[in-house]
Design the sequence.
């Protein structure tokens, strides 16, 4: 069996941005690696950080959910004291004794390598994957340093990639001015927004414990999805004159019960007399919305009826549903991380023109898909479609 090829991408990730992701994915696409460990540092030796380590960690996890080959690791975060690359590499070597290790660096780091702690011992531990400078130039100084390091046993491989002109410093400055840069991955944008990181205003009340709870309750992809739904719901609510704050709250919490085992969901449904519909009680895909509204109330302290309704109807919709609930239901189906489905582009473009029509098209698409698979479509969705058609007809 061939050796596992593991890459390591370290950094403060303060915050992780699209440049980091593009770099990671380019390295993976170059075919040198099976997976890439993404290691946020806990307390970097030379830098002071803008966001607490646990926030940087959650943002890394949410951002890396876009590709299963990107594997966040707490190795550097959880080590006390100063951590050097030598320590990291030896720890990973112990963890994966048979793997081939690759360490990702920028071309400019090559010039600093000899000043690293125990640099002579670092060289044999890995192959360095070098990301080219932004202007793709290789100054003489760089070439001669590479030669020196190679003669001491250093192994280097340049990874082709498109230039990435984005830095965490620029991003932090933009955030401090209240702007949310496009080159932040969508879940990270919402994470910074709702937590009021890097000087952003508008931190949601109670968000610290909400995010801790959601992070523990959801798989990384679902956590990222929830952040992305929240951001999309805010946009829709702003566009259609609904309350963005409520949309954001409902977006964040809409899937909070998604991973409850079905028997726990049924117990909660019974305890609170939520439904006796056997279709709901037999399907966590249906039931998680009703249970989500209950859990949002009991565990997250959310008592706003409008927000709870938006959570309650986010999957099936409901005849007579509020426009806030429509924003959340639609956001769930068009958020930027959504895997593509046949009508997605049309629903997205319609979402900018008519809330009702876009939601109708989205639910009709769901109905068609469910039917084509010979699966059961709940009457509530059918009734919502009928109701939306009547609404749209009367526009
Ligand atoms: Fe859901
Ligand atoms: Fe969802």
Sequence:
């Amino acid at each position: 069996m061939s050796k596992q090829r593991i890459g390591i991408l370290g950094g403060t990730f303060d915050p992780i941005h699209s440049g980091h992701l593009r770099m990671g994915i380019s390295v993976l696409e170059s075919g040198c690696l099976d997976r890439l460990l993404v290691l946020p540092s806990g307390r970097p030796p030379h830098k002071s950080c803008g966001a607490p380590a646990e926030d940087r960690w959650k943002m890394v996890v949410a951002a890396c959910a876009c590709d299963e080959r990107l594997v966040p690791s707490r190795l550097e975060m959880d080590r006390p004291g100063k951590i050097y690359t030598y320590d990291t590499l030896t720890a990973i070597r112990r963890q994966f004794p048979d793997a081939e290790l690759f360490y990702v660096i920028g071309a400019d780091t090559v010039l600093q390598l000899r000043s690293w702690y125990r640099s002579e011992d670092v060289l044999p531990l890995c192959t360095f994957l070098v990301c080219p400078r932004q202007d793709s130039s290789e100054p003489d100084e760089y070439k001669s340093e590479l030669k020196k390091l190679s003669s001491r046993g250093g192994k280097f491989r340049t990874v082709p990639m498109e230039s990435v002109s984005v830095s965490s410093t620029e991003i932090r400055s933009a955030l401090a001015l209240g702007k949310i840069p496009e080159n932040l991955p969508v879940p990270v944008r919402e994470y910074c927004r709702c937590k009021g990181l890097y000087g952003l205003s508008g931190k949601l009340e109670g968000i610290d414990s909400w995010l801790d709870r959601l992070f523990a309750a959801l798989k990384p992809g679902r956590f990222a999805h929830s952040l992305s739904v929240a951001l999309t719901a805010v946009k829709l609510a702003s566009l259609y004159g609904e309350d963005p704050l409520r949309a954001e709250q409902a977006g964040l919490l809409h899937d909070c019960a998604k991973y409850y085992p079905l028997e726990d969901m049924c117990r909660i449904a019974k305890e609170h007399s939520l439904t006796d519909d056997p279709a709901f009680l037999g399907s966590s895909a249906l039931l998680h919305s009703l249970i989500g509204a209950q859990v949002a109330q009991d565990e997250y302290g959310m008592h706003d009826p409008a927000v709870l309704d938006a959570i309650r109807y986010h999957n099936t919709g409901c005849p007579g549903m509020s426009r806030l609930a429509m924003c959340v239901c639609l956001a769930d189906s068009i958020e930027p991380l959504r895997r593509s489905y046949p009508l997605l582009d049309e629903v997205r473009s319609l979402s900018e023109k008519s809330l009702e029509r876009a939601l109708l098209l989205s639910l009709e698409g769901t109905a068609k898909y469910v039917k084509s698979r010979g699966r059961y479509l709940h009457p509530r969705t059918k009734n919502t479609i009928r109701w939306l058609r009547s609404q749209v007809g009367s526009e």
